[in-house]
Design a protein that fits this description.
Length: 126
């Protein structure tokens, strides 16, 4: 990409600022550690096998895609919560557009969750 000679210093400064902003976005505030990563295991054990698209819904808003679980299989995903104190819910969307929802749960101190979709049974492990 070519910039007119008069704009080159401004373009270089903008690029430098953007790069430094991106680098700083990954760091936690001084003196704080980011919450640990949690393993989420989803057992797609519905009576009629069909793929599920799985999301996590933190109580502070947003819907984060974890991935797809093919019918009659189990898949494992990694999730790093923003805050361990927030309540979360798992949602599995069927191919017909229906949502299957887990009970609310908190991740405080948890390292692994196993969700049996058919029974809507959520087991948390440390």
């Amino acid at each position: 990409m070519h910039f007119p000679r008069a704009l080159r210093p401004a373009a270089a400064l903008a690029l430098l600022l953007a790069a430094s902003a991106c680098g700083g976005a990954r760091r936690a505030r001084p003196g704080t550690e980011p919450p640990p990563e949690v393993q989420i295991v989803v057992e797609n054990n519905l009576p009629i096998p069909a793929p599920l698209t799985v999301y996590v819904l933190p109580e502070n808003g947003g819907r984060l895609l974890l991935g797809t679980v093919p019918g009659a299989t189990t898949a494992s995903f990694r999730y790093r919560p923003v805050n361990l104190g927030f309540a979360h819910r798992l949602v599995a969307r069927t191919t017909s557009g229906d949502d299957l929802r887990s009970d609310l749960f908190r991740l405080s101190g948890k390292t692994r969750l196993v969700w049996s979709v058919r029974d809507n049974l959520l087991v948390t492990e440390r």
